[in-house]
Design a protein that fits this description.
Number of strands: 21
Number of domains: 2
CATH superfamily of the largest domain: FAD/NAD(P)-binding domain
Structural class: alpha+beta
Shape: elongated
Strand order of the largest sheet: 13-16-15-14-17-18
Helix content: 25-40%
Number of helices: 13
Strand content: 25-35%
Distance between the termini: 18 Å
CATH class of the largest domain: Alpha Beta
Largest sheet: 6 strands, antiparallel, barrel
């Protein structure tokens, strides 16, 4: 009888299989896709930003949901441990801007191949193209799994590594969350996270394809600031995307379910309001005999100019030397507060991660074992854990996988001592 059955052959499932097999366990992995690591393959635009080589305090700061739950897991398997792990698998790594760690080859396939090779060398039994439809639970103890063809596979313990709902084309269908609910395991409602935002205003599609660097994005719930960060973003036909926006989505996703939010882009965050006004004075003086529409081209990308003209209270035909102080200052305010209305996030098809999942209060944070079902462990995205971009979500996968493997080992040792 196999010691460990892992449901899901993604990032956390593969890692847990390696850690458990290295500890001497007989391990089986059931993956519904035709290959392992399908979602991992597209991570980081195919480059696989597999962790962030920051200090541990920054790891916690970048976790959005339930960072305290990860205290033991992060200290038990750090970002340094992740880099060492992949180097040990023969994968050369590198660290880039923002402490983001990648395979040196820039190919996510190297990470997947390295893990799969290690699994096979450890005699992990890999079952591909097989969907697990249920757990086998008796007297509060996980005893195995039920396959889609109703075949029963018995095991000492089961690890749920099924992921969430994001990128369903990669096989993420929330199966583990459905199984958890069947056994009355508390689940927090799921929503897309690290996902583009849909904007109400009809001038946004006019900006489609425009990328902005070194801008600030502020999102407000009336007078309360929900998000205010600096970085890069992109306009799309439906709204906004890019690193700045993806991070914002994770912070505001839950609040958006109650209704729209106001957002503002500071197009010139390096300038104070007073400095912005002085800049306009200089621009208007240099082109004092030109029309307003022909003076502001130096301030913005060409695609943005027609929208700024439309949003301003200044006639585009008006000469620069005729613009009043009040008009100029109002325009400076517009530059520092380009307005948008955030209606909702895009769906799971475009979400990098799932927010929500198995309630962490139902899980032992040291071992990842469910408190009410012995022998059942949950790791990775199936848990109500998510973080910002930059390798932090994959670090959650590695750390929780390591914690579960250690938890399984401890449980087995306790049983032997009891016997």
């Amino acid at each position: 009888m196999p010691d460990v059955t892992i449901v899901g052959g993604g990032a956390s499932g593969m890692a847990c299989a390696i850690f458990a097999a290295e500890a001497g366990h007989k391990v089986q992995v059931y993956e519904r896709n035709e290959k392992l690591g399908k979602k991992l393959f597209i991570t980081g635009k195919g480059r696989c930003n597999f962790t962030n080589n920051c200090d541990i305090d920054q790891l916690f700061q970048n976790v959005v949901s339930n960072p305290k739950f990860l205290y033991s897991a992060f200290y038990g398997f750090t970002s340094e441990n992740s880099i060492e792990f992949f180097e040990r698998l023969g994968i050369r790594t590198k660290v880039e801007r923002g402490n983001r760690a990648f395979p040196a080859s820039d190919h996510s396939s190297d990470i997947i191949k390295g893990m799969e090779k290690r699994m096979r060398n450890l005699n992990v039994c890999i079952h591909l193209g097989i969907r697990v439809k249920d757990l086998i639970v008796h007297d509060g103890k996980a005893c195995g799994i039920l396959l889609e063809d109703n075949k029963k596979i018995y095991s000492d313990c089961v690890v749920l590594a099924t992921g969430g709902y994001s990128y369903p084309a990669t096989g993420s269908s929330g199966d583990g969350i459905t199984m958890a609910e069947k056994y009355n395991i508390p689940v927090k409602s799921v929503r897309p996270a690290l996902v583009p935002l849909v904007i109400k205003e009809d001038y946004i599609p006019m900006l489609q394809g425009l990328s902005l660097r070194n801008v600030s994005l502020r999102i407000m719930d009336r007078k309360k600031v929900l998000y205010d960060e600096f970085g890069e973003m992109l306009f799309t036909h439906f709204g906004i995307s890019g690193p700045l926006v993806l991070s914002a989505s994770s912070k505001i996703a839950k609040r958006l379910e109650k209704g729209a939010l106001q957002a503002y882009i500071d197009l010139k965050p390096a300038l104070s309001p007073g400095q912005m006004d002085q800049r306009l004075i200089r621009e208007f003086e240099a082109g004092k005999n030109k029309q307003f529409k022909n003076v502001i081209h130096r301030l913005f990308p060409s695609k943005l100019v027609p929208v700024m003209l439309a949003l301003s209270d200044i006639s585009e035909e008006k000469k620069a030397n005729e613009i009043t102080r009040e008009e100029r200052r109002a325009f400076a305010v517009l530059i520092k507060n380009f307005p948008m209305t955030v209606v909702k996030t895009k769906g799971f098809n475009e979400a990098i991660i799932t927010q929500g999942g198995i309630d962490t209060n139902a899980v032992n944070p040291v071992t990842m074992e469910l408190k009410d079902i012995k022998g059942l462990y949950s790791i990775g995205e199936v848990l109500n854990l998510d973080a910002l971009t930059g390798g932090f979500n994959l670090q959650i996968a590695w750390s929780t996988a390591y914690a579960a493997a250690n938890g399984i080992q401890s449980d087995q040792e306790d049983k032997k001592n009891d016997d």
